[in-house]
Amino acid sequence: MEAGFIREPEIWKTLEESKRPSREAIKETFSKALDLKGLDYKDIAILSSISDPELLAELFNTAKKAKETIYGKRLVLFAPLYISNLCTNECLYCAFRAKNTELKRRVLTQEEIAHETRQLIDQGHKRILLVAGESYPKQGFKYVLDSIATIYAQKSGKSGEIRRVNVNVAPLMLEEFRDLKAAKIGTYQLFQETYNHETYHAVHLAGKKSDYDWRVTAMDRAMEAGIDDVGIGVLFGLSDWRFELMATLQHIRHLEMKFGVGPHTISVPRLEPASGSDMSSHPPKPVSDIDFRKIVAILRLAIPYTGIIMSTRETPNIRREAFALGVSQISAGSRTNPGGYCEDEEFDSSQFSLGDHRSLDEVVRDIAMLGYIPSFCTGCYRLGRTGQDFMDLAKPGEIKKHCDPNALSTFTEYLEDYASNETREVGEKLVKETLEGMGEREKIVSQSLIEKVKTGKRDCYI
Ligand code: SAM
Ligand code: SF4
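Above: inputs. Below: predicted complex with S-adenosylmethionine.
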């Protein structure tokens, strides 16, 4: 498949031309951003070059306004589930790379996956992101399909089941993507890692992943196979982050033009130390905390209706700031080693080290204390509000009418079934305050869902 939609020379030229934009040009870009219709990549170049503290503060405030208008105070929670760390690729930044002899290899059996899933359910999770290296045991790709079925089949506790399985596995062929869709996945997620061809080849030394075009066209094949909910991302630290943001936008516009809809989510992983990887501890293009905030803020303004996902790679402090700037989904209580939820053997089989080691309950309490509503909602996906249908609802702000009541209903489920006393107290106060601040119609809908949950019904959504 032709992959010429990442036009590098154009990006470098624009970056060069926008190195020192005038104050007026920056201010104009802020007002354009506040229309919430998105930005083009020249605007991204302009915003990326801001260093003046006053303008930087204005960038962050503009992003906060956009976030608040579209997403309100909701934060969707999920947990990754690593099923295998086998891999035939040689990505220099990753502990799972084939030649890393420091890593203990582990492929979970279906029983072990069932066990891990029940652990996550018992913490209160409703969404799982299934993750694997790029090599499967003898069943081949069927191993992933079987694992998805195993996860969905588990039941535990009061409201205990996983209601949405998102998947982050290596690029597939068209037929395999069709099978993945038939397995009822939520989002198919895949990161290009870097859109810079030279860097890409320098850090992906062997295996199928060394083929840039095969990877960058994966979302085309996924969408052709009918998966209209995809998530993209860049591994920040490999190449210039300004370049990556602009290339990301080229990728998005390509998908929008070809399929009528872009990605549902974008992830913002930063390179973290991983065993057997010097590069992971010495990123070629390190991204500072301030630049990381800029990345989140610029993305929020450039693609206002695309969810931004942040993982436990980041520390609690950075995470708190990023929520306000634009992040809408976070992982919590994560382990990045296969078997990590049931066993205490993190160090020799993990993919990378984590910045946030707190339990789901602690994270929920913390974000609730900051005034964010932890949401375990899976309503849109189960009512078929995905792809173009989701965007049609999201763009005029309609989706909030569904999301806010669903967030409160699933949060109440969590408080009733899984929360510690301390978290329940904080959470109930937040639910009450949120209801008080709602419009009349939304309040009635939310109250009725909450009432159902309180009287024992589960999985209530509109
Ligand atoms: N193996 C598949 C692949 O590479 O696409 C899917 C799973 S891979 C474990 C998921 C993601 O982990 C990669 O896309 C990469 O961005 C991220 N990753 C790898 N090494 C990392 C590190 N040292 N720090 C942070 N993220 C890392
Ligand atoms: Fe394998 Fe993915 Fe790690 Fe690369 S990033 S070594 S493909 S698991």
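The chain is about 50% helix and 10% strand.
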